[in-house]
Amino acid sequence: MPIYKVTRSVSAPSECIWRFVCDVTRWADLLETIDKVEPLDGAALTSGHRFRIEQPGLRPAIWEVTKVDPAEGFEWVSRAPGMVMTAGHRLTGADDGTSLLTLEFGFSGLLGTPAGYLFGAKTRDFLTREIDTFARLGEDAARGIT
Fold it and tell me: pTM for this one?
């Protein structure tokens, strides 16, 4: 089961980053890796809520929120024939006002392993671009820019 993970130290408190990570409905405006987000069960990031996500070069996918820890992260899952994709977004705040941000994406199921390797480069690229953007937005918010 291929799992891709990126972690970054961010010069901002976790709440400054969380406000962007948890605002899934704004991701199309914030992230160049997201073309469109359509809430299917309401815009709130709540367990059980689903979002239809369109990304460049990929088929649209329905993502269902499975776990939310406010200001700490969330996880969601998307299912396609023969595979399950999982994604995690985690924040750990430090006493010095910095945070550790981790984004993780995994593929499982009969077709998950081949799909994971086939889309590995794109997955790593998207994760890197997303973590860079969330870090920049969080740092700007901490400086009062956003």
Answer: 0.94
